[in-house]
Specification:
Blueprint (H helix, E strand, L loop, with lengths): L43 H10 L40 H6 E2 L3 E2 L3 H9 L8 H4 L19 H6 L14 E3 L7 E2 L16 E7 L8 E6 L2 E5 L15 E4 L2 H5 L4 E5 L5 H4 L2 H4 L7 E3 L1 H11 L9 E4 L5 E4 L2 E7 L8 E7 L2 E5 L17 H10 L1 E7 L12 H14 L4 E5 L5 H13 L3 E5 L1 H13 L12 H6 L5 E5 L9 H6 L12 E5 L8 H13 L3 E3 L15 H11 L1 E7 L3 H13 L14 E6 L2 E7 L4 E5 L2 E2 L4 H13 L1 E9 L4 E11 L8 H20 L5 H20 L4 E8 L1
Parallel strand pairs: 3-11, 7-9, 9-10, 10-11, 15-16, 16-22, 17-19, 17-20, 18-19, 20-21, 27-29
Antiparallel strand pairs: 1-2, 4-12, 5-6, 5-23, 6-7, 8-25, 12-13, 13-14, 14-15, 23-24, 25-26, 27-28
Helix pairs in contact: 9-13, 11-12, 20-21
Length: 747
Amino acid sequence: MSEEKEPGGAPKNHPPKNNPPKNQKRYHRPARQEKLPGSTAASGAEAAALSENGKQSADGRPAASGKNGHRNERTRGARIAKTSGAGSKMPESTSNRAETKGSGSAAPGARADGAAANRGATARPSAAKTATRPGRRADPLSGLSRRRTVKALAASPSLPEPESGQGQSRPVRRDQVPGLLPGNRRVPASKAKADGKLRIIPLGGLMEIGKNMTVIEYGNDMILVDCGFAFPDEDMLGVDYVIPDISYLEKNASRLRGILITHGHEDHIGAIPYVLRSINPPIYGTRLTLGIIRNKLSEHRLPSTPRLITVEAGDYVQLGLLGVEFIHVNHSIADACALAIHTPLGVVFHSGDFKLDVTPIDGNMMDLTRIGEIGNQGVLLMLCESTNAERPGFSPSERRVGGSLDQIFRENEGQRLVVATFSSNVHRVQQIIDCSIRYGRRVAIMGRSMENVIGAAVELGYLNLPKGTIVDAAEMNRLSPGQVTLITTGSQGEPMSALYRMAFGSHDRVRLSSSDTVVLSSSAIPGNELFVDRIINALIKSGIKVVSDATTANVHASGHACAEELKLMHALVRPQYFMPIHGEMRHLFAHKKIAEYMGMPADRIFLGEIGQVLEIDAEGARWNGTVPSGKVLVDGSGVGDVGAIVLRDRRHLSQDGLIVVVATVALDEKTILSGPDVVSRGFVYVRESEEMMVAARRIAQQSLQRCFDNNCTDWMELKNALKDDLGRFLFQKTKRSPMILPIVMDV
């Protein structure tokens, strides 16, 4: 894109260096304020004015406005004059009159207030401002612990009242968060002596897809970036999720200042309920991200109340010697951010997941200006995602998907459309709803995660859902097929997802037929290809038309940066050192080659594994040791109780089946009282193998009698003898080795 310039080559209306852009409307940042002459930082009254002008209520809530249908907040405690131009009038309050006289000179206390602000404490408004009127909730997220049903979504746009009980998270008001500064009041990290060591420790997200978690520590301060899970491999039978090993965090819990979440995808937030069972640091994230987290936490019983702190793109949080700035980026979920982490040694830039979308659905383009400013100031280390590093070019815009969806709706009038997509892709869901309204369709929602995310997005104003659009399953079945769009989960072929049950005819409310068209508006996550193919084959076998990215162009757009976008990020940030993250070995290696192409020396690129410690100090960067790391398996409500031995037994059972040998003996008399009986499960069909089973009982009896003849009455020796003798016999007969479980009872 070309840029209009003034004489001398500078971009027209470009903000001064180190200052944010003047037009802050996109990120709901406070309008710029003129400081009082002689003051070093904003005073208490000025902070109140900044809060009000920045569309933030006095109790710390971001006040939403117009476009997204957020509720407008009335001024409480003091009237704030309307702002105009670059400056604004100060609030007409007692505290302001005490600080300003005549021409606006600073009161003697202004410098003291500024010093307090520089120490990281945000100035608090007066009690009159912070008081909440009866009947008004303190935070718009507080009602999200209740799962919103489809019927409730259609009936009431208002927020539900908060529920109490375990798992209920506690919202924290922005004006009560020490060290949290609005977007236009960025300050550098504490100017501590840069003689310490900066340690970067990835606990997940390297050499794998998902399970993203990175520790950044300096001195006695530590922060955690993201806290996600991964889906199990095919050989992890019965396992629901895989989370990182957090034993290092538990050991250093007193040093952990907070968990910083870049966005609300499961591979970045999924492990939070399990981590909070043993540690409880504050969690910082944007509004939609925390709304999704709050829904997730409401389903778990936690030992303590989680502390969720809402931030906005442009905000700066001081956590000990580490200062974190949130920077808006585009991704396949709203409210995604990159992080600029200010340390005494320099800035660590964490890209999060991102793409360059110049025509985003919400109109908020990635903040390239601020990223470039940070790059100009100097970046010590960049951690950048690598998921699409092997793909050339640019990721297509999300807006292009809307055109393909419109064509699908137009070509399938009269048929029921079943659209499967990622539940967290709010912008995709919005385009599906818009197309449904355009073609006179009602919308039904299937899948718990889809209902939860859409409920949170509607309540927070990220999704425009006109009244009467949503129908439940009962009403959907009364409408003609051409009047219904069904938005569902299961785009990754998950075995218990709504689409999977529809495809195999086991869904209790939806039956698919040849009059339906299924649209897979997604791409298979690496490792899920077989599951997706299984669903497609089942649907086609049933005579159902399937539309996917393989058959229709632009039915899906990736939310991850391709090679050219990664090059742009390297050109803007220009880090001294670089570590590729978020990907398997092939993705990380492809990103390493991109960095080298952009001029990064190979010895400044660190391709690591989880648990490895990257240490940086004044002398340079190097690998220096490891910390405990690995995979912790979640099976139902159990966390970590399924290990290698249990998985080995499950694999053994799944491959060769089970033989149970039951015998009753009298050890004192060294005689067999009954049995042994042999029971087969998953090994052979007993009715077709009667002779072998009779022979197996005879072998077991001989094994026990031989032990008694040798005066052996030890339980373990008896069981081992049964397993060895019977195992050899069965292998000779079948060339298989089932699991043998001997049960010997003494009477």
